[in-house]
Each structure stands twice: as structure tokens, then as C-alpha cells.
Design goal:
By secondary structure, the protein is mostly helical. It contains nine helices and four strands.
């Protein structure tokens, strides 16, 4: 186990976030320290920090490195080791096998994080598309209903539910939504292309 893995195993994200000044509410939400905001858009998970506003995503080491503008991840590891009295030996050179195994896990973690960001964009964009279409409500009883408005009546609540589920569940929960995200992506592309032609986009 590398020093980074030892650090991650020894201290959780919520402890680090609160220890470095973040006010985390019962839902695990907090103001993001990496951009200006008034409403909390960052979620604290057991092993990671994710901001749905600016897209910043990091584990305890990456969070600490960015929070204190440290040059290298090892500097963040040393700070965490000192600040939380973890008593982890830092400086031991890992074996080639340890480096290879760590790289495999790092690549797998990076692939998941990329999917997670993309999945959130898909669900969030779908939700806002439904919000936009809900605003196409007829202005009078005599006005013909735009079919996009009708569609949003049946799907806006579901889109909001998917976003909230994605925010609140853990990594395993998000991975279980992979098929749903793929279907939403394909569906959103289809309805956006087929329902936003010039004739539909023009005011009635």
C-alpha cells in the first residue's frame, strides 16, 4: 500500500473538509471553497469531494493540495499526516510492483471520475431541458400546446429525481445508474434533435 493509499484509508473526506474550515450540513453539502457561491453546490462523500457547480473533484489529497496551493500531492500527504497525527512513514520508495498496481488503480479511478462528471452533465442537462420545455406552457386556453411542454409534464419530476439520486448516492449507487444515464443521453439527443427544428422553435 502506497503512502497515498495509507492517507486515504486513515482519514475521511468529511473530517478533512471540516478540519480545514468547511461547514458541512446534514446532507453532506457545503459551499465550494474553489469558486464564489452563496448556495452550497459541493457534496462531501466518505472518500471524495465533488462540486456540482464548478466540477472540481478530488480525494483528501487532491483537496488538500488545491486548498493550500501545494506543489505536489506528496506535500499534501505530508500536511495531512502532520495535521491529523496519522504517524504514517513517508519517504519509503515503493517497489516496481507496487507502482504498477497503484497505477492500475489510479487509471481505474480516473476513468470512473471522468464518467461521473459526464454522467452528471447528462442528467443535469436533461433536467434543465425539461425545465425549459415546461416554460412553453400555452398562454391561453385557446393556444395549441407545444408537444415539448406536454412531454415535460410527464418527465420533469423524473429528471429531478434522477439528479437528486445521483447527488445523494455513493459510488456504487452511481454506477448502478450507468444504464439509466446512457438511456437518458440517447433520449436527450433524440428529442433535442427531432423537436428543436425551426418550425418548432418559432413562436406560435
Amino acid at each position: 500500500m502506497t503512502v497515498f493509499e495509507q492517507i486515504r484509508s486513515a482519514v475521511d473526506m468529511k473530517t478533512v473538509a471540516e478540519g480545514y474550515g468547511l461547514d458541512v450540513n446534514r446532507s453532506g453539502m457545503t459551499l465550494c471553497p474553489f469558486h464564489n457561491e452563496r448556495t452550497p453546490s459541493a457534496k462531501i462523500y466518505h472518500d471524495s469531494f465533488h462540486c456540482f457547480g464548478c466540477g472540481e473533484h478530488a480525494d483528501v489529497i487532491g483537496f488538500t493540495q488545491k486548498m493550500f496551493s501545494l506543489n505536489k500531492p506528496i506535500d499534501a500527504a505530508k500536511k495531512l499526516n502532520d495535521d491529523y497525527c496519522l504517524n504514517i512513514e513517508i519517504g519509503k520508495v515503493p517497489t516496481e510492483a507496487e507502482v504498477t498496481e497503484y497505477q492500475k488503480r489510479a487509471d481505474k479511478k480516473r476513468a470512473y471520475e471522468e464518467w461521473e462528471k459526464q454522467a452528471w452533465r447528462i442528467l443535469n442537462d436533461y433536467y434543465w431541458l425539461m425545465r425549459d420545455w415546461r416554460a412553453l406552457a400555452p398562454k391561453s386556453p385557446d393556444e395549441e400546446c407545444d408537444k415539448r411542454f406536454i412531454y415535460s409534464l410527464h418527465h420533469l419530476d423524473h429528471a429531478e429525481h434522477l439528479c437528486m439520486e445521483f447527488i445523494n448516492c455513493d459510488k456504487d449507487g452511481r454506477l448502478s445508474m450507468m444504464d439509466t444515464v446512457a438511456k437518458i443521453s440517447a433520449l436527450a439527443d433524440t428529442i433535442s434533435v427531432s423537436w428543436t427544428d425551426k418550425s418548432l422553435a418559432e413562436p406560435r
